[in-house]
Amino acid sequence: MLIITLTVLATALHIGLCFAGAPLLLGLVNKLRAWLLGRRGPPLTQPYWHLVKLLRKSTLVPDTATDLFTFWPLGAFLAVTVATMLIPGFATGLLTAPAADYITVIGLFALARTATMLGGLETGFGFGGAGAAREALFGLFAEGALLVLLLAFALLAHSTSLDGIAATFRTAHIGISVSLGFALAAMLTVALTETGRIPTDNPSGHLELAMVHEAMVLEYSGRLLALLDYAGMLRLVAWMNLIGTIFLPFGMARAADILSWPGGLALWVVKLLVMAAVLSVFEVSRAKMRVFRVPEFLGAALLLGMLASVFLFVAARIGA
Amino acid sequence: MSLTFSLAHLMGGIILLCAFLQLSQRRLAAMITLYQLEALILSVAALWQGYAQHEMALYLTGLITFALKAVLLPWGLREIVLRFNMVRAVETAMPMALSMILGLALIGVAVLVVLPTTMRSISLTREDLAIALSVVLLGLLLMIVRRNALAQIIGFLSMENGLVLAAVGMPGMPFVAEFSVALLVLLAFLVVGVFLLRIREHFDTLDLSGLEEIERRGR
Predict the structure, then answer these.
(1) A81-85, B72-76, B133-137: which range is least confident on average?
(2) For chain B, first and last CA: distance in Å?
(3) Where are the domains of chain B?
(4) Which residues of A145-178 are buried (b: 16+ CB within 10 A; e: fewer)?
(5) Which residue from A158, A245, B162, B178 has the highest number of Cβ atoms inside 10 Å of its Cβ?
């Protein structure tokens, strides 16, 4: 009974923290980027005010749009919400753990992408179509890379559930493996594309020729735009949690053991801070890529994922 | 799995990653930086192996690698780029994606070749040998898929890094062999530098497709 209560509490804490902290994390990344550029930057709470502002504005629906126009942001938001709930953050063994499968998470992100793309196509307006086409092109390679990585993870951990992967990678006997290094490089590449960060898409840019995500959500306003923006913030948290769970699983708390929570929470915050810092340094030091170079960038991720699997087969043959 | 092996393995992995990423770069500056990183990791790997195997010679190899390949050669390459006022983006002989897929296939070949032939040797060095052979093959591939002479030199140097990596990982490799290889590469670099100068004088470019043109006309 106690264990069930604790698990429910931990799950509630995980969901609450992720959902409440998502805008803060984006604010932190923006602040760090501004600092690195020698500017003062917006306050950390700016994304919250952005959402509040959007909620108070009126929501317009274009004349050319169908009735489904209001459905797509909701669909994208729900898919990302479920993914955020599933991916473990500070603790393993959450209530959602049995459903938190790597394949499920990939599928949910794909669902969110599809909904956003259809939303962009909804008005029959040029930019939306261009953005959706680019997103589809990127998605083709990004999902391919993620599925190849699945092979590597399944070979190493003998499990595709995120909890199982974290539990295996936390134990020492995997050691530092070349395959995991390749997998990390591939995963980071895909994560940058999925969250629309700088080498593939500029989150703060409104240049027509280079827009990808911005182009798809151009016609949305008010509450619908707030949903889409909030989904973007959640996606950043979810990806950081995913990378943290798979590649930095040390120090994660167990949901049934309340004494391990404070340590797990503190380490989780530290991991997020480090990842935010790394992301901002990377973004400031890179220029945005030309749109048609991105498939090449993601193709490299795909091949790196394959390399990870190739070296796993070597290791399996030697029995090391 | 011991720490010695894990770290050596990790450094081998980074070197392979650098060699692979060189295939995906279009710019000379990025290729030179990647080569420099590769050489730096190689020197660290040599020092680490020297520490692990208690070999004085490997320390020397590491220091020579650092001084020559991680400092001197990249500086020389950058100097050439500046002096010749070269176009910084390199022509490729085939699409980037195709060359990367070929690279992956070559790594697969290296793994398939090394595994059965070294079945009896110490198991821990075998994966390192596979990595070293992959780096050598990737260097060769880089020389094939680039039209620019300087990019081809980088491919050659990267290939030599793979050789040193193999030598460093094998216990009992005589130091003289490595030393002579390092010297040879430096000499080759000097010769190629003069050669580049000549090509440049004749064609005003380092794009080697001009040579093919002359060859065709000569027949």
Answers:
(1) B72-76
(2) 60
(3) 3-171
(4) bbebbbbbbbebbebbbbbbbbbbbeeeeebebb
(5) B162
Q: Do B13 and A310 touch (CB under 8 A)?
A: no
pLDDT for res B206: 65
B177 to chain A, closest Cα gap in Å: 28
Q: Are A70 and A233 in contact (CB under 8 A)?
A: no
Helix (H) or strand (E) holding B87: none
**Average pLDDT over every residue of B146-150:** 80
Which residue has 């063994």 as its token pair? Answer: A93
Chain A positions in Cβ-Cβ contact with residue B117 (cut-off 8 Å): none
Statement: residue B124 has pLDDT above 70 = no
CA distance A125 to chain B (A): 32
With 90 as the cut, is the pLDDT of residue A22 above it? Answer: yes
8 A C-beta contact, residue A142 and residue A298: yes
Tell if the CB–CB gap between A303 and B20 is shorter than 8 Å. yes
B chain contacts of residue A176, beta-carbon cutoff 8 Å = 6-7, 9-10
B28: tokens are 């000379």
Given a cut of 50, whether residue A101 has pLDDT beyond it is yes
Predicted ipTM of the assembly: 0.72
Which residues does chain B have within 8 Å of residue A181's beta carbon, measured at their own beta carbons? 10, 13-14, 17
- Return the residue matching tokens 């950390």: A44
